[in-house]
Design brief:
Number of domains: 2
Distance between the termini: 74 Å
Low-confidence stretches: none
Shape: elongated
Strand content: under 5%
Largest sheet: none
Length: 120
C-alpha cells in the first residue's frame, strides 16, 4: 500500500505498515535523516524548548494563585520535563531552572504574606 493511500485511510505511516520495498527504503532513509538531525541539533532544540517553558512560567501570574497540591504537581511535572530534556540534550537547563526557582520563591513569599495578613 502506498504512503498516500495509508495516510488517506488515517493509518499511521510506519515501517511495519508499508509493504512496498521502494517506499520502505525511502521511508527508512527519511527516518534515519530525522534521527541524525535530531541528534545533531538536540542541544539547540532543548534550549528553545526550555526558553518557551521558562517564558510561560515568567508570564504566568496564575502560578502564584495555585493551591499547594497544584504547585507540588506542577513542580513534579516540571522536574520530569527537565530531566528528560537534560538527558536528551546532554545540557543543563539553567534558564528553565532559574524561572522555576523565581516562581517558587514568589509563590512562597505570597503565601507567607497571606498567612501573616490573616494573623494580623
Amino acid at each position: 500500500m502506498s504512503l498516500s493511500l495509508a495516510a488517506s485511510k488515517g493509518c499511521p505511516v510506519t515501517l511495519s505498515y508499508v509493504d512496498d520495498s521502494d517506499t520502505l527504503t525511502r521511508l527508512a532513509a527519511s527516518y534515519a535523516f530525522i534521527q541524525d538531525d535530531l541528534l545533531r541539533n538536540r542541544k539547540y532544540l532543548w534550549e528553545k524548548m526550555q526558553q518557551k517553558a521558562a517564558h510561560l512560567l515568567d508570564q504566568g501570574e496564575q502560578c502564584l494563585s495555585l493551591q499547594p497540591e497544584d504547585i507540588t504537581r506542577l513542580l513534579t511535572w516540571t522536574d520530569a520535563f527537565l530531566q528528560i530534556g537534560e538527558d536528551f540534550s546532554g545540557a543543563f537547563s539553567t534558564e528553565l531552572r532559574t524561572a522555576v526557582k523565581t516562581r517558587v520563591i514568589q509563590y512562597f513569599e505570597r503565601m507567607q504574606n497571606q498567612q501573616w495578613s490573616s494573623l494580623l
